[in-house]
Design brief:
The protein has about 200 residues and is an all-beta fold. About 0% of the residues lie in helices and about 35% in strands. It has one domain: YVTN repeat-like/Quinoprotein amine dehydrogenase (Methylamine Dehydrogenase, Chain H). This is LVIVD repeat-containing protein.
Amino acid sequence: AFWHSATFNNEGTKVIFTDELGGGGAATCNEAIGPNRGANGYYDIKRGQLSFKGYFKIPRHQADTENCVAHNGSLIPVKGKDIMVQAWYQGGLSVVDFTDSSKAKEIAFFERGPDSTASPLSGGFWSAYYYNGYIYASDFNLGLDVIKINDRRTDEAKKVKYDGLNTQTQASYREGGRDDHDGHGDDDHGDHGGHGGGHGGH
């Protein structure tokens, strides 16, 4: 197990580390592996120190032929909330509310089912990124999916309009307005220039 990537919330007061157990090629979303390995780890940031709050892993057990583990994602810019969409390989896409970082919970998901039921086969969603009302997800075997999310809990995100998106960095966004990618944010966010390294990983 190892930390594969890191994603901050918009205020930079929380960080999610993803544990890509098995390197993305193993079946880890099952009862044998359990809920804490191959999962997200949530930490609050206070006075420059990390405080562990809890784990999240998709609640659906996957078949032994399905590679499944926490992987790449991005924030959905909802005012007053911390919400993220994330890829889990053949575990599909998961939308997670981590406003309470000790009780991260799934509020939506999309899953096709196993690419093969006969033998292990690598596949599923490698990444899932939110951009101006849509989720753009890359599937190993099927290509690009563009998914529209219609849910009252994420409707506020439609008010945020990005001028561009580099998924390897994290520009902060102004809640209810434009993003800070080109300096359009308000005074509270305009001097951030993003939250450091953003998403590492493969």
